[in-house]
Automatic annotation (TrEMBL):
SMART domains: Gln-synt_C (SM01230)
Gene Ontology terms for molecular function: ligase activity
Classification via PROSITE patterns: GLNA_ATP, GS_BETA_GRASP, GS_CATALYTIC
The protein's Enzyme Commission number: 6.3.1.-
Spans traversing the lipid bilayer: none
Start and end residues of each GS beta-grasp domain: 12-104
Entry keywords, A to Z: ATP-binding, Ligase, Magnesium, Nucleotide-binding
Family of this protein: Belongs to the glutamine synthetase family.
Positions of the GS catalytic domain: 111-445
Name of this protein: Glutamine synthetase family protein
Organism: Simiduia curdlanivorans
One Pfam family this sequence matches: Gln-synt_C
Length: 445
């Protein structure tokens, strides 16, 4: 393995290597190493980086989660993740690393390892998940003062978008220079980006990825977010993956299409005659049963829950339906071989490793426990206006920590660490007095 990476570095004239580890939030932690030292030296990082909050703080029970010595993790580069950094001034490579304990075991709090653990459960059954993510995001004008609202950036015409531009070709073309550079960077990194559309929000775009291996696609989404941010920076704007960055605009999702194939490559969601299988129904039943308990992995930030509101394009129910975008679980029209389930709950602010792991875990538990779904929804899934999901991070974390089946799948150490990190973020947010409170409560209560 090391020899293949060494050869690649030499063939591409690489002078520096970014050693990357996805943290709990899905952001890149790591270090820069000169290429000539990369092969000769083992890479290590303190395990505490895995339990930093999005603000860079550590949890109150830090020493109950990591060893008192705050030991180093051993990092092992994955040769399948070796990529050029196309925006770097010097020839630079980026390599995603797996984390191991000093004893040589996969580190239980490393999010990439959590996804690998779920995939191993499928492999034991002779199954392989196939996923395809849809990544929505906003382009916004640079905003260095967080007290000010975000706004769309000017396009080629010099004007800002304010009207709805869903699927507008001309709307996309307004940002053609940025999009062209994004595609150029993606091609240089072998990212399987497919179609691009203009979503319904002002300067909101969506990139679809080709379906494939779940771990590889998680790596690609992780890499794409870095790529899109860098592309936007170079054009003097921001790309944001907040779930709900603007008050009057819709949120951004990362819908996950998923199916499962057997050892012969056949889709287990249909039988030999092309009819829906029992496993397909059980998979949906598992999603309905366990999505409430995994919602903190699909909505991992305090801002995430602003997506789950009435009368906006986001799921607020646990219904499922055929080609029904009002349902949280949608079954797209397809051929029998392409039969799949679309999970519409994740926001784009997810850690892709954890979102894939959670979605696949729900389906796996449904198939193993033979959970029967409700009848499919034929009308508007939210006509009654009832919201069947947690409305804040605290409620979501309570559901996560109160589910023995998921603890067995993900591991008790990970559940404890994740809940601690997200609870710390929730408490930090709770200390902030918002503009709404000052506007409506200051003189009226």
């Amino acid at each position: 393995m090391v020899d293949s990476i060494d050869s690649w570095l030499k063939e591409n004239g690489i002078t520096e290597v970014e050693c990357l580890v996805p943290d709990m939030t899905g952001n890149a932690r790591g270090k820069f190493i000169p290429a000539h030292k990369f092969i000769k030296e083992d890479s290590r990082l303190p395990e505490s980086i895995l339990i930093q909050t999005v603000t860079g703080e550590y949890v109150d029970n830090h020493w109950d989660i990591v060893a008192p010595l705050d030991s180093d993790m051993l990092l092992e580069p994955d040769p399948n993740t070796v990529r050029i950094v196309p925006w770097a001034d010097e020839p630079t490579a980026q390599i995603i690393h797996d984390c191991y304990t000093r004893a040589g075991d996969p580190h239980p709090m490393a999010t990439r390892n959590v996804l690998k653990k779920v995939l191993a459960l499928y492999e034991k059954e002779g199954w392989t998940p196939v996923v395809a993510p849809e990544v929505e995001f906003y382009l916004v004008s640079q905003n260095t003062d967080p007290d000010y609202e975000l706004s769309p950036p000017p396009g080629r015409s010099g004007r800002r978008e304010f009207a709805r531009q869903s699927y507008s070709i001309d709307g996309c073309n307004e940002y053609e220079p940025i999009i062209n550079d994004m595609y150029k960077y993606c091609e240089a990194q072998n990212l399987d980006v497919d179609t691009l559309i203009h979503e319904s929000g002002a300067a909101q775009l969506e990139i679809n990825f080709l379906h494939g291996n779940a771990l590889d696609l998680a790596d690609q989404v992780f890499t794409f977010k870095r790529t899109m941010r860098e592309t936007a920076f170079r054009h003097g704007i921001y790309a944001t993956f907040m779930a709900k960055p603007m008050t009057n605009e819709p949120g951004s999702a990362m819908h996950i299409h998923q199916s499962v194939v057997d050892k012969n490559g056949d889709n287990i969601f249909v039988d030999k005659d092309g009819n829906e299988s029992d496993l397909f129904r059980y998979y949906i039943g598992g999603c309905q049963r366990y999505i409430p308990h995994t919602i903190s992995l699909f909505a991992p930030n305090v801002n995430s829950y602003r997506r789950f509101a009435k009368d906006i394009a986001a799921p607020v129910n646990l219904e499922w339906g055929y080609d029904n975008r009002t349902a949280g679980i949608r079954i797209p029209d397809s051929s029998p071989a392409g039969k799949r389930v679309e999970n519409r709950f994740p926001g784009v602010d997810v850690n892709p490793y954890l979102a894939f792991a959670a979605s696949l875990a729900c389906g796996y538990l449904g198939m193993k426990n033979k959970l029967t779904p409700t009848p499919h929804c034929e009308g508007h899934a939210s006509e009654d206006g009832e919201i069947e999901l947690p409305r804040n991070l605290l409620h979501a974390l309570n559901l996560l920590t109160d589910c023995p089946e998921l603890e067995e799948v993900f591991g008790a150490d990970f559940i404890k660490a994740y809940a601690a990190v997200k609870m710390e973020e929730f408490e930090a947010f709770n200390k902030v007095i918002t503009t709404w409170e000052r506007e409506y409560l200051l003189l009226n209560v």
